[in-house]
């Protein structure tokens, strides 16, 4: 019997089943793609680290002649890769990069090869690139090494053509947050052009170190390294901590995709449920005939569900195939930078679950709908308080009737999907707009990342100034667009087994403080948020910091962002007064320099152009290029990348709202045709019939706005606060009043546009034909 029914259904209702299969395919592809993309993105960092022999710590002494051979012999050291920063031109464009030894491509941070191969360590004319660089395997780039002889700049400027032999990726060799790639020369370049690259002075190499015990061995490694070098101010960067931050970012992106998948699944369930319900309603007359012939009700339900289940199975298979193809564009956002195996990647677990669960749910839903239809007895729909109020206030008939159509179910229907869809659509759009306003505010104002200076000058390195700073400062301060200058020394102190980059803060300087206050005395410090967290310190605590003068106790007066330098971002470090700095670091130390970096930070007037000011100051000081506009904060591009996910979710919810409201309007006219025909017979005009449907659309839109706007604002602000704290940025409550007003206006206009065709049908119905049919 079931087989015969299925053959008959395929002949009679193949169009309906085809539409159902396409809807299932679209829903399945959307949900499976999002879930698989979330799983892939969340694990990208860990999968990259598993394949690349990652370094655990970066050691940054910036000391010529540092004994790296002895470091390699320290207990617990598995591998050491040294590198030096170099400047050169690539195809005529100035560039800078890191030139590592052969260890950095073999025993530590061995990259995955996305295309081609690793360079031959003996050949200077081979390079590899990261994926964002833009060059492909086989391309040729021209490297022109910068001169190092100030007397004869043209004496040492060799040029060579290098071949790109591979595209690689590891946690160390990675595109930056803006997606900009890196060119990595072969170690052979240093072997052939050592003097041209680094000059006659002893080279200043830093290193990345892989430890046998991983992150757990960093504390012992630091202690052994301090004993070996005689220095307590060595800058050690815990790379595992940086990886944890990246995991947090990719986890947020994955959670956003999972929320998208959940909402898509719920929305698809509602829309598919309506489609299955309509299909089941169409089969009710035939089912009652079969029931009269003696077919048991349970068997009737499974028989009626055979067609939708077959369509769902076909749609689920197609949807799974689409999800596999779409996986080539995942993971997205920050996770894409870390993916060790980009390209098509079918998640077998997700695909299998989807292709089994979707048809099973459709089968159960169709059967349950059929059983319910056979048992259903007509009932009285509940009245709407809003419609009753409109009636009592003497509103026009179209307004009262349209309100009842929007808010009362009527015979055999429900308004809940339409109202829920409208609320979800408005809430999703408003939440995305609110969140986007927070992101826009943060990315448009560098001070949210603690960058309160707009120009800067790098004037000293490892204890030596490049220029006479005392003579330079009055000239810079005399510029009318310069408000205040912070003469900043930076050196590295130790807090237990953690490195803390400490910056001097002049009395007039005002950094961004997220808690507490800035230091005022020589025994006070304001810590950056990530350093405070890793040390385990809060405002009011005391910390013991060790510098070249020994160990001292400091009171933590605040949590504040710090300037970014070549070896730290704005969340790592701390502020001290000049007196506190001098108490920690000995200017006459024979082993350690007084400072690691010497920076001049220039806060400009709000209307000043940093580039114009930098050019003017270059002319005034005779040091062209010394003062430069401040570079954007390192995490600004990272924050921009997560802006797109809520917008995609808002778009999907907006489509859901359109579908729910449009379906409610179309089906409402069809279900209420008897009511409309009676009203027309009693004198309702064609234009009043149109007004009924327009009112229905407007009331649904207003219901969505009334509930969706406050819900969306609250949701958008909660999500933005979480992102702001995780990034972190100085949190400012986002406001998007203009965008929300435009969203409300658009919702009303679109709802009435959706009502155009149903209202035409309501106005043009044949009243006598409808009443005779009823």
TrEMBL record:
GO molecular function terms noted in the UniProt entry: transmembrane transporter activity
GO CC list: plasma membrane
Localisation: Cell membrane
InterPro entries assigned: ABC3_permease_C (IPR003838), Macrolide_Exporter_MacB (IPR050250)
Domain ABC3 transporter permease C-terminal: 259-375, 647-762
Keywords, ordered alphabetically: Cell membrane, Membrane, Transmembrane, Transmembrane helix
Bilayer-crossing regions: 257-281, 302-329, 349-371, 418-439, 644-669, 690-715, 735-757
One Pfam family it belongs to: FtsX
UniProt membrane topology term: Multi-pass membrane protein
UniProt KW Cell membrane keyword: yes
Major place of residence: membrane
Family label: Belongs to the ABC-4 integral membrane protein family.
The protein's name: ABC3 transporter permease C-terminal domain-containing protein
Organism: Jiangella anatolica
């Amino acid at each position: 019997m079931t087989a015969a029914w299925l053959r008959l259904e395929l002949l009679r209702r193949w169009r309906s089943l085809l539409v159902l299969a396409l809807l299932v395919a679209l829903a399945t592809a959307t949900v499976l793609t999002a879930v698989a993309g979330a799983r892939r993105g969340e694990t990208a960092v860990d999968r990259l680290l598993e394949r690349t022999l990652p370094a655990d710590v970066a050691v940054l002494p910036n000391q010529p002649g540092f004994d790296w051979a002895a470091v390699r012999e320290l207990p617990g050291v598995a591998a050491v890769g040294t590198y030096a920063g170099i400047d050169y031109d690539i195809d005529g464009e100035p560039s800078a990069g890191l030139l590592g030894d052969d260890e950095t491509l073999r025993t530590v941070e061995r990259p995955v090869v996305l295309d081609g191969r690793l360079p031959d360590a003996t050949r200077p004319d081979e390079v590899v690139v990261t994926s964002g660089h833009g060059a492909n395997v086989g391309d040729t780039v021209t490297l022109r090494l910068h001169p190092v002889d100030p007397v004869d700049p043209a004496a040492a400027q060799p040029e060579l053509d290098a071949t790109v032999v591979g595209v690689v990726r590891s946690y160390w060799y990675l595109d930056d947050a803006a997606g900009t790639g890196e060119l990595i020369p072969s170690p052979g370049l240093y072997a052939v052009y050592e003097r041209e690259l680094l000059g006659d002075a002893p080279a200043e190499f830093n290193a990345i170190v892989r430890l046998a015990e991983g992150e757990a061995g960093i504390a012992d490694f630091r202690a052994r390294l301090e004993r070996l070098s005689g220095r307590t101010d060595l800058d050690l960067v815990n790379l595992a901590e940086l990886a944890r931050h990246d995991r947090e970012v990719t986890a947020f992106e994955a959670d956003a995709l999972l929320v998208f998948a959940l909402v898509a699944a719920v929305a698809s369930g509602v829309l598919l449920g309506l489609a299955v319900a309509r299909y089941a309603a169409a089969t009710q007359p035939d089912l009652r005939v079969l029931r009269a012939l003696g077919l048991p009700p349970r068997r009737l339900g499974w028989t009626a569900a055979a067609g939708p289940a077959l369509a769902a199975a076909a749609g689920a298979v197609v949807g799974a195939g689409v999800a596999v193809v779409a996986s080539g564009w995942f993971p997205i956002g920050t996770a894409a930078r870390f993916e060790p195996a980009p390209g098509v990647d079918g998640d077998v677990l997700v695909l299998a679950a989807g292709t089994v669960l979707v048809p099973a749910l459709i089968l159960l839903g169709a059967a349950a709908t059929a059983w319910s239809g056979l048992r259903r007895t007509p009932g009285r729909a509940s009245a709407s308080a809003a419609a009753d109020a409109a009636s009592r206030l003497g509103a026009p008939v179209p307004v009262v009737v349209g309100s009842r159509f929007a808010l009362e179910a009527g015979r055999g229907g429900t308004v809940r999907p339409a109202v829920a869809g409208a609320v979800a659509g408005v809430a999703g759009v408003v939440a995305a707009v609110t969140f986007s306003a927070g992101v826009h505010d943060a990315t448009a104002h560098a001070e949210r990342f603690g960058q309160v200076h707009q120009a800067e000058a790098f004037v000293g390195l490892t204890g030596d100034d490049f220029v006479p700073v005392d003579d330079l400062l009055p000239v810079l301060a005399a510029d009318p667009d310069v408000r205040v200058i912070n003469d900043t020394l930076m050196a590295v102190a130790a807090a237990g087994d953690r490195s803390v980059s400490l910056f001097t803060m002049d009395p007039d300087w005002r950094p961004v403080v997220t808690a507490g206050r800035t230091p005022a005395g020589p025994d006070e410090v304001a810590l950056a948020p990530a350093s405070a967290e890793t040390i385990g310190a809060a405002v009011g605590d005391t910390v013991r910091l060790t510098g070249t003068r020994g160990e001292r106790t400091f009171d933590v007066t605040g949590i504040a962002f710090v300037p970014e330098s070549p070896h730290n971002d704005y969340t790592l470090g701390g502020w001290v007064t000049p007196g506190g700095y001098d108490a920690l670091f000995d200017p006459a130390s024979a082993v350690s320099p007084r400072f690691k970096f010497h920076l001049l930070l220039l806060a400009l007037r709000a209307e000043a152009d940093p580039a114009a000011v930098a050019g003017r100051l270059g002319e005034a000081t005779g040091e062209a290029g010394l003062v430069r506009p401040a570079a954007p904060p390192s995490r600004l591009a990272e924050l921009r990348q997560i802006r797109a996910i809520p917008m995609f979710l808002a778009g999907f919810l907006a489509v859901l709202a359109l579908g729910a409201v449009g379906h409610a309007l179309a089906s409402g006219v069809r279900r209420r045709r008897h009511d409309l025909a009676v009203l027309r017979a009693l004198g309702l005009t064609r234009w009043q019939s149109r007004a009924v449907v327009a009112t229905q659309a407007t009331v649904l839109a207003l219901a969505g706005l009334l509930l969706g706007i406050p819900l969306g604002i609250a949701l958008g602000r909660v999500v933005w606060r979480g992102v702001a704290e995780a990034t972190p940025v100085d949190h400012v409550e986002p406001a998007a009043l203009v965008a929300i007003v435009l969203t409300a206006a658009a919702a009303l206009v679109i709802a009435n546009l959706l009502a155009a065709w149903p209202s035409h049908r309501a106005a043009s119905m044949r009243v006598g034909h409808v009443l005779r049919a009823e």
